[in-house]
Design a protein that fits this description.
Largest sheet: 3 strands, antiparallel
Radius of gyration: 25 Å
Structural class: alpha+beta
Strand order of the largest sheet: 2-1-5
Helix content: 25-40%
Order of helices and strands: HEEHHHEEHEHHHEEEEEHHH
């Protein structure tokens, strides 16, 4: 399925057709995956897109019984029944936890099983086979969106214009800040920044990450790049290690740590004078006054897209 989409995508690029949308992978009753695609394209190119995808879907053994009906089906959005969002949310809910309703009742599959009972099986199926269930197509990289969450602010206008909608979970605003849907990577103003660590004397790669095939990758993500500047978003390097010793509670350093932890978790009452002195548009100062040394979260919103 992925190889077929690569062929279709390459042909669309050769024909100069740009499209964007969303893809969801689902299992058939026998475990074979099938895709649901929600694509947006210029109205005058819709017929060409339809015919191109149908042609590629039937390239291999397309004359077998039922192939023309089962391989590919294109359906226009019927706004009397619902929007594009309503269409895609149906499949997202069905494949995450199944907690949604149809006609006021808990949704069921074709065999009468409750969707909320089937959803864990779908997640297990995707995990075992390494299938990416949800993917946006034709939009800016989600990694840039996630790294923008980590920035408290940016002095650069372009970066700040993308950081603001990212921090508010405004995906449409983020796309506009990245030069719109279907923009090529070279035309997107913000890119991820990666690095490889070398020994300055020997030239040996000290920290060279590899991909799933054991080949050297482009490096480790450390931030964002825009306007010939770098923004650092990954401040620490974490390592999983076995503890070498265990501190006893009577250890002075351990007691000091416990006292500090107790202080961080104590919330004191805020005086009216402190409340009146707060700027109306700030949340950070309020958190600081309420929690003393307790820092605010790295983002004011969740990490969902």
């Amino acid at each position: 399925m992925s190889n077929l989409w690569c062929q279709i995508r390459a042909q669309l690029d050769r024909d100069g057709i740009r499209t964007y949308g969303f893809r969801i992978a689902e299992p058939h009753h026998d475990g074979i995956p099938h895709w649901h695609l929600m694509l947006f394209v210029e109205p005058e190119l819709k017929h060409h897109l339809d015919e191109l995808m149908r042609t590629y879907a039937l390239l291999k053994e397309g004359d077998e019984p039922g192939a023309k009906d089962a391989r590919f089906q294109a359906v226009d959005i019927d706004y009397e029944r619902g929007s594009a969002t309503g269409y895609i949310v149906n499949y997202i809910c069905k494949n995450i936890d199944g907690e949604f309703q149809k006609n006021g009742e808990d949704a069921q599959d074709w065999y009468g099983n409750l969707s909320k009972n089937v959803a864990p099986r779908v997640r297990a199926w995707a995990s075992i086979h390494g299938i990416r269930q949800f993917q946006q197509l034709g939009g800016p990289p989600v990694t840039v969106w996630r790294e923008l969450h980590r920035l408290p602010h940016a002095d650069d206008e372009i970066v700040e214009a993308a950081r603001q909608p990212a921090d508010k979970s405004d995906w449409a605003g983020f796309i506009e800040a990245m030069n719109g849907p279907c923009a090529k990577r070279v035309d997107q103003p913000i890119k991820t920044a990666k690095w490889l660590e070398y020994d300055q004397d020997t030239g040996e790669c000290l920290d060279c990450p590899v991909n799933q095939y054991g080949e050297p990758s482009k490096g480790k993500l450390f931030g964002l790049y825009a306007n010939e500047q770098y923004w650092l978003t990954r401040l620490f390097r974490w390592e999983v290690q076995r503890p070498t010793h265990t501190r006893e509670l009577h250890d002075p350093s351990s007691i000091a740590w416990l006292e500090r932890l107790s202080h961080l978790t104590q919330i004191r009452a805020v005086t009216q004078a402190e409340i009146d002195a707060l700027p109306a548009d700030t949340a950070y100062a309020w958190e600081k006054l309420n929690s003393e040394m307790h820092p605010p979260p790295w983002s004011s919103v969740n990490n969902c897209t």
